[in-house]
Specification:
about 240 residues, five-stranded mixed beta sheet, Heat Shock Protein 90, alpha+beta, 6 helices, 7 strands, 2 domains, about 50% helix, binds adenosine-5'-triphosphate, binds magnesium ion
C-alpha cells in the first residue's frame, strides 16, 4: 500500500475483512445488474399481454425490482465503507462540497415542499478533503433530513469558523429521534425505516472521522434534528 502522507491509513484491526467485504459487494453487483436487466426485459414482454395472469406476474416483477434496488443500495453503502481505506486528502472548500450536494437534492426538496436555507460563510478557510468520499457522507445526511420531512419543512445549512477549524450544521424541522434511535443511530444496520439499510450514518461518521473531524447530533422528537460536523483546518491535521 502507498504510504504517502496524503493517503489515509486507518488503524483498523478488521481492515482486511472490510476490504474483503468491499470486494464481495463489488462482485455481487455484476450478477445483480444482470438479474435486474432480465427482469426489466421480462416486464416489457408481459406489458404487451393483457391478461389476469400477466398482471399478477407484473406485480411479482415489481417486488423483485424493489428488492434489487434495496440490494443495490446496500452494496453501494458497503463499497463506500471499504473505499475509506483509500482516502486521498487534498485542499478544498467545504462550501463547495455542500453546495454540490444541495444542488443534487434541490429538485427533490422542492418536490416534497422542503425549503433549503443556506448560510454559508464566504470567508470559510479551506480544509483537507477527499471530495467524492466527503460528498457521499453529506449526501447521506441530506437524504436523511429529507426523509425526516416527508410532508415538507425547512432544512437550514450553515458553515462557520470555530476555535479549532470549521463546522457545518444541518438543521432540519423533521420528525426528530426517539431515545432508542439516538442511542443506536451510528450502529451498522440500525434503521427505523422499512427500506433503510442502516449504513448511511455509520458510513458518514467514518468518513468525517477519516477527515480528522467529528460529528455531533442534537434531536428532539417531532421538532427536528441538528447534525454538526467539525473539521480541523490544515495546519491542525
Ligand atoms: N435527520 C434525521 N431525522 C430523524 N431521524 C434520523 C435523521 N437522520 C438519521 N435518523 C435516524 O437514524 C437512523 C439511521 O440512519 P441511517 O442513515 O444510518 O440509516 P437509514 O436512513 O435508516 O437507512 P439508509 O441510510 O441506509 O438508507 C434512521 O433510520 C433514522 O431513524
Ligand atoms: Mg440514511
Amino acid at each position: 500500500m502507498n504510504q504517502s502522507p496524503e493517503n489515509f491509513d486507518q488503524p483498523d484491526p478488521c481492515a482486511e475483512l472490510t476490504e474483503l467485504a468491499g470486494s464481495l459487494a463489488h462482485e455481487i453487483k455484476n450478477p445483480l445488474s444482470v438479474i435486474r436487466l432480465n427482469v426489466e426485459l421480462l416486464e416489457e414482454d408481459l406489458q404487451e399481454i393483457a391478461s389476469p395472469a400477466s398482471r399478477r406476474a407484473l406485480k411479482k416483477i415489481s417486488t423483485v425490482k424493489r428488492q434489487c434496488t434495496r440490494l443495490e443500495h446496500l452494496l453501494d453503502d458497503f463499497m463506500q465503507f471499504s473505499r475509506l481505506r483509500r482516502l486521498t486528502l487534498k485542499p478544498g472548500d467545504l462550501n463547495d462540497q455542500i453546495e454540490q450536494v444541495l444542488d443534487f437534492y434541490g429538485p427533490q426538496a422542492t418536490q416534497q415542499n422542503v425549503e433549503i436555507v443556506r448560510y454559508l460563510d464566504a470567508d470559510l478557510p479551506g480544509i483537507m478533503l477527499d471530495s467524492r468520499t466527503l460528498q457521499a457522507a453529506l449526501l447521506n445526511l441530506v437524504k436523511n433530513a429529507l426523509e425526516a420531512m416527508p410532508d415538507g419543512g425547512r432544512l437550514e445549512i450553515r458553515t462557520r469558523v470555530t476555535l479549532k477549524g470549521v463546522a457545518l450544521d444541518l438543521i432540519d424541522s423533521g420528525c426528530g429521534m426517539d431515545d432508542t434511535t439516538l442511542l443506536h443511530m451510528f450502529e451498522n444496520f440500525f434503521s427505523s425505516k422499512s427500506n433503510g439499510t442502516g449504513l448511511g450514518l455509520p458510513t458518514a461518521k467514518k468518513i468525517i472521522e477519516a477527515h480528522g473531524g467529528l460529528i455531533d447530533v442534537q434531536s428532539a422528537l417531532d421538532r427536528g434534528t441538528k447534525f454538526s460536523l467539525h473539521f480541523p483546518t490544515p495546519r491542525r491535521i
